[in-house]
Amino acid sequence: MLNFLPGPLLGLIAFLLLLANILFWVPLLLAFAVLRLILPFEAVRLAVDPILLAIAEAWIAGNSAWMRLTQRMDWDVQGVAGLDPRDWYLVNSNHQSWTDIFVLQHIFNRRIPLLKFFIKDQLKWVPIMGLAWWALDFPFMRRHSEEYLKLHPEMRGKDQEATRRACEKFALIPTSVMNFLEGTRFTAAKHAKQRSPYRHLLKPKTGGIALALNAMGDKFRAILDVTIVYPEGAPGFVDFLCGRMRRVMVRVQRLPVPEHLMQGDYATDPEVREAFGVWVKQLWRDKDAQIAALLG
User: Fold this and answer.
1) How many alpha carbons lie under 13 Å from residue 100 in its C-beta half-sphere?
2) Is residue 237 part of a domain?
3) What's the predicted TM-score (pTM) here?
């Protein structure tokens, strides 16, 4: 354990280990992804995708290793026993920090299939990582404001189509579809601007989770509703690297897939959209109460 070192030095070491882990595994990912691109047949995908996922899981295990080496962190995690890495899950979580992704990958790695995140389209240009996300079939999404869609109505429905295409790939081999319902990281400023009715959460967005359920709801074993709480406050990424995150609380609740919501067409049926809204709002009220209880 290196957590006795001064924070800036610890942060530098953690960053270098993070970078070395990326540079080791990403070229391997790209080699197999290019093979899949050259031979775009389902049989090739079925053979190559498990190799790509195994590489990604080893990459995440490497992250967990440097985290254990550099961080002195109390992990208070409940609800991850009995999960199956050979099944499909729809995973939902609140979102406060980039650190959330490391937390989620750490607690779920090899317990469930690799988490596949919906990523903002502009992030595909991030050096190295954009290529890695492409290799792993992470869907890139363009989220347009309602004002933009009024000026460009031809763009309406593009994200839904991208979600459907992604879910078609996810249905081939066991996958965990990851969705942050808030769509962005929680901050006090965003909370105030939204006038969110929740004390600890932003308003949820139903589109992503609804389309995933419509596209492959019959595949999902369960919905994993994740609540992440940082009792000392959500850390920034630099704070995390420098060992200033001392405790994280994670609660995972397995929920049944709402069969009554799987059959309708969210994109075109107002009644289905309303039903999804009612379901998600109740989910969010329960999560907000859980966060309040964990914070005491």
Assistant:
1) 22
2) yes
3) 0.90
